[in-house]
Hints:
There is one protein chain. The chain has seven helices and four strands. By secondary structure, it is mainly alpha-helical. Helix 2 (26-34) links the parallel strand 1 and strand 2 (39-40). Helix 3 (44-50) runs antiparallel to helix 6 (101-127). The chain is elongated and about 50 Å long. The structure holds zinc ion. Residues 75-76, 79, 81, 83-84, 110, 113 line the site of zinc ion.
Amino acid sequence: MFSVLDHAPGMLPADKPRYLMGVGKPDDIVGAVRRGVDMMDCVLPSRSGRTGQVFTRHGVLNIKNARHADDPRPLDEACACPACRGYSRAYLHHVFRAREIVSSMLLTWHNLHYYQELMAGMRTAIAEGRFAAWEADFHAARAEGDIAPL
Ligand SMILES: [Zn+2]
């Protein structure tokens, strides 16, 4: 995808928005924006939420994993979404394992909030002329990985 995006935006009118269909994972979105894509759409935040996959500043975690069963911490301590402000990993693990629909709702809520913050962060960084620094911070945070188990 990136090898195509290295060339395709230059062939498109400069005064028109550039849309990339069905993308994607956070790394793919950031890489696409770096290459000139303006907008995209994807089911991943909600589909992943329904399957227990959670996107955070530190990468992807799976709430199904036993390591979260007794963890009182939120999905992401820096996240302001209602799922992170009101529920622990242990609760989210329990309701996912119990197949409660609230699990899909809360994990999707978090993932959509994460994606909105991701896009807002890129928009602000581009407007302020500091996208390269923002991108470096994005990759550095993801390279740290999830917080250590308790
Ligand atoms: Zn959250």
